[in-house]
Each structure stands twice: as structure tokens, then as C-alpha cells.
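At this stage, I put together one protein's amino acid sequence and its C-alpha cells, which the following lines show:
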Amino acid sequence: MSDIRLPVAVCSAVAEVLNGSHDALNAMFETAGAPGPPPDLAHHSKWKTWLQRVGNDPEVDSLFVLGNLIEEFMDLPPLESNGELDEFLGISTDPVKEYSKRKERLVKVLEEHGFRYFRGGRIIPIGQHEPIVSDTTVQNSSEGSKPSSIEDLLKIIIRGLPRAMQPLVHRRKNTPALSFTTEYDIQDLLHSQLRPWISDIRPEEFTPSYAGSNTRMDFLLPAHNLVIETKRVRDKHHASKVGDELIIDIEHYRRHQKSDHLWCVIYDPELYISNPGGMISDLEGTRSTPEGSVNVKVIIVGTSA
């Protein structure tokens, strides 16, 4: 846990490079781990103030949140400009040059205040060694080394899904790009990320009947009594229905003898969910009846694009 205070200049410099609507950036901050609610301020002041709150909260890993917020900006430069087309469209600014200038300024401010950025959203104080992506401990040899708990592993993999998609969407020249437009696409990517770490993954196992019907789990991890359910938000209408869908899923999973824990992964790339914090608050927690109980964890994954 890093409870390092974030200097005001760093907070201000980061606020300068964040683009998007209030709703988009609210979701971005919440996904990065910033404590809510969002400050009720004008655009630039809002993100600077929220970052200052992150840096002043001893319960929040300030460098982890900061790294999550600037990772996409730092690691994904804009496409090179097309001189003739830009001239025809009346675009006078070269996006690559403008991006380089803004990135150079952010790097300079970070370093002036004792921080260095490493690819993948990792920020450490200058003088420390470059960090490993995750702290690992050697466990069962059949599953290699892994983070110290299944919860830590899932957080790393789930929150890293957009990063894992990036080289598959932006592939090399003349190589077909992959898309992630359906829940099956998200499930396949998540499955591939889990397989090196967990030996027994059972996709599409049926749940006990609820209200006259049963359903298939996306993934059951029987060694951990844990189920993963994925949702891919299709549009604004679907965004308003995702919570209701998960409430029904929770009732099914609560009756399964191997589902003590349910992780709901919601991929919302267009940020259609207007109140992600409210949805998480409504769904998370332990659901118990005489027929069984399940502890529910919700992670909403999106991008700032």
C-alpha cells in the first residue's frame, strides 16, 4: 500500500491530460480506485481536487490510482497525422506533436516531484527499482507462482482486461484485428488470462433452478468456491438493465453448492452506465436466505475513450 501524498502540481498536471465528459471521467476515477463521491466542481478543478483527495487518504494506494488514471494517455499515443487529409479537413494541429508535448510536460512534473512512470500504469518514487507487475509468491507447483490470494489475482486480471485487449485490437500490419463486441469475446479473453494461473476452470456449468428456470455460469473455479459472471454493456438501454440481470443471476448462484463467492465483471467500454458507484453499492455484499448465501463482488471495467 502506498499512502504517499500527491503534490498539487502533479494533480494539476494529470488533470490537464485527462479528456472526456464528467460521466466518463467519473467512471474512470471510480474504476481506478479513487474514493467517492466526485467533487462538485468545474471540469479541471474537479479532477485536480479528486486526485488531491486520493493523495491525502491513508487508506488509498495513491500511486496505484495515479498510474491507472494516466496509463492510457502514457501508453497509447494518437495515430500519426495524414498531412494532405488534415489540410483538406482544416486540421492545423499535429496530434502526435501535441501529444508528445503534453506527455513530456507530465513526465517532467512527475520527475520534478520525485516520481517516475513505467509502462503498464506503474509509478514509483525515483531511486527505487523498476516494479514487477505484481508481487508473487510461490504456491502449488501445478499452478506456478501467483499473487498471494485469489482475490488479488482476479483484481489484476480483470482490471487489466483493456490493457490485454490493446495488442489484439491494434495488431501488426496486414494482420486481422480482434474485436471485443460480445460477452463471448470478453469471456474468451478472461478465460485465456486465467488459464496460466488456475488449473481447474469450468465454463458454462448449470446452476440450480430459480423461478422455473436455470442458467449457465460463465466460469466456476471449484477450488475456490467462486463463480465469475461477465456482462458486456451494448448500449444505453442495456446499461439500465444490467443490474436487473445480475440480481436474477445472483439468485441462481446463491443456490449452487460451489458458489460461495460471485464476481460480476461488467465491461462498459462506452461508459453507458451513468452511476457505476451506485450499481456497485446496490449489488455488492452477502446475499443470504435459508436456501443458501453468496458474497457478491462487482467490478466495472471501461476506458476513457
The beta strands are 115-118, 122-125, 137-138, 145-146, 202-203, 219-221, 226-232, 261-267, 285-289, 292-301. Confidence is low (pLDDT under 50) at residues 131-145, 208-213.
